[in-house]
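Can you give me the bound-state structure? Components:
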Amino acid sequence: MRWTRWWRRRPLTCPEVARLLQRHLDQEVPEHLAVRVQAHLEDCRRCGLEAEAYQQIKQAVRRQGQPLPPEAVERLRAFAASLLEEGKDGAGGPR
Amino acid sequence: MTGTTEDRSRPSAPPTTLRRVAASPEEQGRTSIADDEAFRQFVVPEIETMLRVAGTLTRDTGEAEDLVQDALVRAYRGIAGFDGRYPRAWLLTIVRNTHINRGRRKRPEPAEDPDADLDRVARHTTESTVEASVVDIVIDDVVQECLRELPRDQLRIVELVDVAGLTYREAAEKIDVPIGTVMSRLHRARKRMRDHLVRAGIGPGRSRR
Ligand SMILES: [Zn+2]
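Here's the bound-state model for the whole set.
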């Protein structure tokens, strides 16, 4: 009985964390397990770096997935062109 | 794209006659023909990247556009002093510093003296910012490339979970597959990106390989 309880709370190993890592970062791991994963990530540099890498990937994917408003890009291109235009007259730029 | 421009730091050494050697005070704000060319070559192609980064900083499309506009003005004024190396990193540093300055302008009341903090940030930002920008750029490039090569079924799940923010269960219901399939596709896709990053020299494996 006591052994079972210890087993459920024992520190996770690196391979266990590796298996849970992506689910953990997606917040798909139950709370009681998430706490143990988090504890391991804070203690283990190797797994911590791994977690950071996946976090960065998630963020980068999110950035890619949000399309830029094409009108804004157009306006900014026009603005850049106007800087070049007005720079010739010594003005610091439009506006 | 980045890093390889060292040898062509400026559009092939401009004829000296076209270059104004030193701008007199009343000439400041004006640029030489070579500088205009540098602006066209290095800055204009990066407008989309600048806007993307501005979007992550401001979390508002209108704000982001204003921020890039200010950054473009700064880049235009600073182009004469830019050596042509790592144009993206240079521009993203400008975007971030402009963002910090805009934040300062927006709340001028020193209620709890937030400016002190901002000053500190501004002073200490530059170097680490360049590094962080470079890393962000590499990650974005690698991820973009990976997404393009990803099998359709994996890409779909990545979009649903990471872009649309669905849970595994919601994603599974949306495309009518078991939740285990969602997990395996998603995790395989990310693993692939992670391996690419390691190969690109960033990521957790860098010190061991
Ligand atoms: Zn570990």
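A couple of observations. Residues 162 and 186 of chain B are 9 Å apart (CA to CA). Chain B touches chain A through 49 residues (CB under 8 Å).
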